[in-house]
Design brief:
The complex is a heterodimer of chains A (141) and B (425). Chain A is built from 4 helices and 6 strands; from the N terminus they run βααββββαβα. Chain A is α+β, with helices and mostly antiparallel strands and 141 residues long. Chain A has 2 domains: 2-109, Alpha-Beta Plaits; 114-141. Chain A has a 4-stranded antiparallel sheet, with helices on one face. In chain A, β3 (53-58) and β4 (61-66) form a beta hairpin. Chain A is flat and about 45 Å long. Chain B is an all-alpha fold. Chain B has 4 domains: 1-110; 111-177 and 184-213, Arc Repressor Mutant, subunit A; 233-317, no CATH class; 370-425. Chain B has 21 helices and no strands. Chain B has helices at 3-29, 32-53, 59-77, 79-88, 90-97, 100-108, 113-122, 129-139, 145-152, 156-172, 183-205, 213-231, 236-249, 275-290, 297-310, 319-332, 336-350, 352-361, 373-384, 388-401, 405-417. In chain B, α18 (352-361) packs antiparallel against α19 (373-384). Chain B starts with a helix and ends in an 8-residue tail after the last helix. The chains are: A alpha+beta (141), B mainly alpha (425). Chain A binds chain B through residues 35-39, 41-42, 81, 83, 85-86, 88-89, 91-93, 111-113, 121-122, 124-125, 128, 131-132, 134-135, 139, and chain B through 8-9, 11-13, 15-16, 112, 211, 215, 219, 222-227, 230-231, 253, 258-259, 269-272, 276, 280, 312.
């Protein structure tokens, strides 16, 4: 199964302060372990929310809100996508990461199989059609 | 934490640590079976102690220490280790009693040499292919005997027997615990890659059994391939195999229709391909190509798969490049099946007549006798050439040869769609 590991923002990451050499080295080592264990699929760090934007929906109306956003703990500073055998394996790997404070959240990525019987052939077909349409839209743009 | 929480956490630690733990122990005791027993004993100790004491900060080092204590106990009481002791003299005792820095070193294995040695031992040519696969999944994938049996649709007893015999063979033939060098390396590496690809294909091609099999075996093979990529980064064919598996796996969910019917490459909804895996596959292929030298068979197959992966629609496929790659593959690893694939590519690149010429040259190939894809491909080309009467006969022949009911239906439909008795143009 795949999990997305979400690293929450903190004051430093939101202020655009880059991690110091020691943390970067430790993080590099940890990433290398993940790669060597065949767990790491991809991972990226994100710019602070001051460079981001939100779009809020209300019926047909769309409102664009520019960053920064205030609730640092709820913001994401980076993510990994991992291939693991179980949620427990993901938890065990996260425990080994070099973070000293803050919080990391692990979420399981949905696969078509997870929908079980509720994801009927018709729904699959519908999903396929939607994907095909969105692809056409992308090409058209 | 409840006891069951702790047990699940220990399972996860085992999954992460057991290959390195066993690899480190094999280096010390020089016996795969004994190393696995010691590692298992350490696991039992963890199951007994961690629920009380909590998980240690460095679980890997804890397990290694526990395994070594167990080995020392055995050394004092047990003939099995006593024999090893005599073989290696005081050396073994010294290694077991080793000071703390040595202990860390044993587990640290920063280059991963122990792990690489373990992979080479599990895939050693003295073992049968089935034994290599079982041992690799067991020691490197951390799969239980039951899981392996389940995946290969054989009784658990059979798998257990294979593993026991494999360990005995390794001990009796005194297979050295080393990374092969020089001329030996190429042959041994190809044995390793063969095992990994076999595991992948077992998952990829599985048409029977429950849904668990396919993704789990493919994922396991991919993980092993990615690990190998980290351990032997200078070997182009390792990256070639990883690229091939990543790209093939990217099509897993597009290969089967809503009713479970197989969907061929050209009919697949390409938006359902896994673009993360494609990206990873193309990156691995680039690594293989960058290492230089003539491309090996896995890298060539990956390059062919990549031509399809890069095409957003079937029409965008770079057929001329695929023909060139099949030419190279046919030279390196000639086989009638490769020839047939090359003929299809030639037909797509240079027209059906050119393809038909190559297919006809294969008509007398004994190994393709009874292979339904030969008449099926021929029928396809004949349709394109407007020779529908002949095409109809080929589709009917293909339908009579296939063992797959859905495929038979499809071929008979194609036969029926060819107007009977149309004259040759």
């Amino acid at each position: 199964m795949r999990v997305m590991v979400l690293v929450k923002a903190n004051k430093d990451s939101e202020a655009g302060v880059l991690p110091d050499q020691k943390i970067l080295t430790e993080m590099g080592k940890f990433n290398e372990q993940l790669v060597k264990a065949g767990v790491m699929l991809e991972g990226e760090g994100l710019h602070p929310s001051s460079k981001g934007a939100r779009v809020r929906f209300s019926g047909r109306q769309r409102t664009v809100i520019d960053g920064p956003f205030t609730e640092a703990k709820e913001l994401i500073a980076g993510y990994w996508l991992w291939q693991v055998k179980s949620m427990d394996e993901a938890i065990e790997w996260v425990k080994r990461s070099p973070f000293q404070d803050g919080e990391v959240e692990i979420r399981q990525v949905f696969e078509a199989e997870d929908f079980g019987p509720a994801f009927t052939p018709e729904l699959r077909e519908q999903e396929a059609r939607l994907r095909a349409q969105s692809q056409k839209l992308k090409k058209g743009s | 934490m409840t006891t069951s929480d702790t047990h699940r956490a220990i399972d996860a630690v085992w999954r992460i640590e057991s290959p390195r733990l066993i690899a480190g122990l094999v280096r010390i005791v020089r016996d795969v079976g004994l190393a696995e027993d010691l590692a298992q004993d350490a696991l039992v100790a963890a199951l007994e102690q961690w629920p009380e004491s909590g998980a240690p900060d460095n679980p890997g080092a804890w397990l290694m220490t526990a395994a070594k204590h167990r080995a020392i106990d055995l050394l004092r009481r047990n003939n099995r280790l006593q024999r090893k002791y005599e073989e290696f003299g005081r050396d073994l005792a010294a290694r077991l009693e080793g000071a703390a820095p040595d202990l860390d070193a044993a587990l640290d294995d920063p280059v991963g040499d122990d792990l690489l040695r373990l992979i080479f031992i599990c895939c050693h040519p003295v073992l049968s292919t089935e034994a290599r696969v079982a041992l690799t999944l067991r020691l490197l994938g951390g799969l239980t005997t039951e899981e392996i049996a389940h995946a290969f649709l054989v009784p658990e007893q059979t798998v257990a027997q294979r593993i026991v015999r494999a360990k005995r063979t390794l001990a009796e033939t005194r297979v050295p615990f080393e990374v092969p060098r020089g001329a030996d390396l190429a042959a041994r590496l190809s044995s390793v890659l063969e095992v990994v690809y076999l595991i992948f294909n077992e998952g990829y091609a599985a048409t029977t059994g429950d849904a668990w099999i396919r993704p789990a075996l493919c994922e396991e093979a991919l993980r092993l391939g990615r690990i190998l990529g980290g351990l032997a980064p200078q070997e182009p064919e390792v990256h070639g195999l990883v690229a091939l598996m990543e790209i093939q796996a990217s099509r897993l969910r597009a290969r089967v229709g809503p009713a479970g019917e197989p969907i061929l490459l050209f009919d697949q909804d390409r938006t359902r391909w896994d673009h993360l895996l494609i990206r990873r596959g193309l990156a691995a292929l680039a690594r293989a190509e960058k290492l230089g030298g003539a491309l090996g068979p896995y890298t060539l197959q990956a390059a062919i798969a990549a031509c399809h992966a890069r095409a957003r629609t079937p029409e965008e496929t770079d057929w001329a490049r695929i023909v060139a790659l099949y030419d190279a593959l046919a030279q390196l690893a000639p086989s009638p099946v490769v020839e047939l694939n090359r003929a299809v590519a030639v037909a797509m690149a240079f027209g059906p007549a050119a393809g038909l010429e190559l297919v006809d040259a294969l008509a007398s190939e004994p190994s393709l006798e009874g292979y339904h894809l030969l008449p099926s491909v021929r029928g396809d080309l004949l349709v394109k050439l407007g020779r529908s009467g002949e095409a109809r006969a080929e589709f009917e022949r293909a339908a009579s040869l296939t063992h797959n009911a859905r495929e038979r239906t499809l071929l008979l439909e194609r036969a029926a769609a060819c107007p009977r008795g149309s004259a040759h143009p």
